[in-house]
Every structure is written in C-alpha cells, then in structure tokens.
Specification:
The protein is of the alpha/beta class. The protein folds into two domains: about 1-45 and about 205-219, no CATH class; about 55-195, 3-Layer(aba) Sandwich (Aminopeptidase). It has five helices and ten strands. The strands form two sheets. A six-stranded mixed β-sheet has the order 6-5-7-10-8-9, covered by helices on one side. Strands 2-1-4-3 form a four-stranded mixed β-sheet, covered by helices on one side. Strand 8 (about 120-125), helix 3 and strand 9 form a beta-alpha-beta unit. Helix 2 (about 70-85) packs across helix 4 (about 175-195) and helix 3 (about 130-145) runs antiparallel to helix 4.
C-alpha cells in the first residue's frame, strides 16, 4: 500500500506505507509542516504560516511629511507575501471580532529632513520566538544601504512589531518604486524570520522542482 504526499491538492510523490514513520521524521527535521490524513491515506504538506493570524495596520498618528498614501500599497504587497506562506491576514478594513492575532504589525513611513539615507526602525515586544530575525533585518538593510535600529517596547504584552521607515526629504521623489520594493521584501523577510524555527525549509513554497527532492528521498 502506498501513501500520497500532497500539496494544495497536487500529488508530489508516493511513499510505501512502511516508510511513514521515517518520512514523518524527515519532514519534522527539515521544517515541513504537515497533516496526516489517515482516513484518506494522504500526507498533506502545509505552508509555513498555516494557522497563523496576522493583523497589519497603519500608524494612526500622522507625523509631518507622512506617506500615508504609500502605506496602503505596502499593506497590500506585504499581505500578498505573507498569504503566500499560508497566513490569514487582516487589515483595518476587515479586522475580525473575538479573534486574537499571532502577530500585530504596524507600518509607518515618512520623510525626515534630518537624515541623509533611508532608515528602518523596528519596535517590538520582548517575546519573539527567536532573535535571528533581528540579525536578518540588520544584514538585509546593510546590503540595501538602509540604516537599521531596533527598540523594545516593554509596555507591549502581545506579539508586536512596528516598522518605521524614514527617507531623506528632498525636492526629488523619494518613495521610488525601487526603494519601496526593498522595504517590502526586507520587512516581509523579517516577519517570516520571527515565526521561523531553526528549520531552514520551514517556509519553502513547493515548485516544479520540489517533487525531485521528495522522489530522491523516497528512492
């Protein structure tokens, strides 16, 4: 008897029934979330953030030179990335009642006449699963030429991250598409890294090459 390994209703590979314990061990050691459907004889691979609920909000206080019009697109684009990893995303327009968030995110962006290059400051609670995400954000910002700082908000008792993006104020347009995409990718990576455990494959999205991985394991 063979067992199907599926992702989004697509069969990835079949394994012998006798291999189930060792395959479960393989999945856990490599960070693949999964569900065992014993009734139908299927192992369902899940996205890395399956079952996680994230609120993404914009800062309500409008600082001078605030870029509120840009924030809406940021929320949409970052939500797109996080939904791709299986999370349920809610913004101010559709916040659910009586539902707690696994992480509350606030985004803010404005021009600052006193700085010479873009900066990213992350305010966060004291209870992240790990601090690897801080290192990742720091390195990504360094590569992108963005100053990076963090600040612990001790008053926050729930999982919380506020991303404050600042750019120099000048006569030229500063919120360029290129800079915006850098911020979006860096922030999305930081959020994913906060949820990530020590398993490097935790957030893998299965592509056409993935069946080769599982087939090689099964051979």
């Amino acid at each position: 008897m063979d067992v199907s390994v599926v992702y989004e209703e697509r069969e990835i590979v079949k394994i012998p029934y006798t291999s189930i314990p060792s395959f479960f061990l393989l999945l856990r050691e490599n960070g693949f979330p999964f569900k065992w459907d014993e009734q139908n004889g299927k192992i369902q691979l899940l996205p890395g953030l399956a079952g996680k609920t994230i609120f993404i909000l914009k800062e309500t206080f409008k600082a001078p030179y605030s870029a509120q019009r840009v924030i809406k697109k940021f929320i949409d684009d970052i939500s797109f990335f996080l939904k791709g990893s299986g999370a349920s995303i809610y913004s101010e327009k559709n916040l659910p009642l009586n539902v707690s968030a696994d992480l509350r995110i606030i985004l803010d962006m404005y021009e600052d006449p006193s700085i010479d290059q873009p900066s990213l400051t992350v305010h966060h609670d004291m209870k992240p699963h790990n601090h690897k995400w801080i290192y990742i954000l720091k390195e990504e910002c360094r590569e992108a030429g963005i100053d990076f700082t963090t600040n612990v908000k001790e008053a926050e008792t729930q999982p919380y991250m506020k991303f404050l993006m600042k750019v120099p104020r000048s006569a030229q347009p500063v919120f360029t598409e290129s800079l915006n995409k850098k911020f979006q990718l860096i922030i999305s990576m930081g959020i994913l890294a906060r949820f990530q455990t020590n398993n490097p494959l935790f957030f893998i999205i299965l592509s056409s090459s993935s069946p080769n991985f599982f087939s090689s394991v099964n051979s």
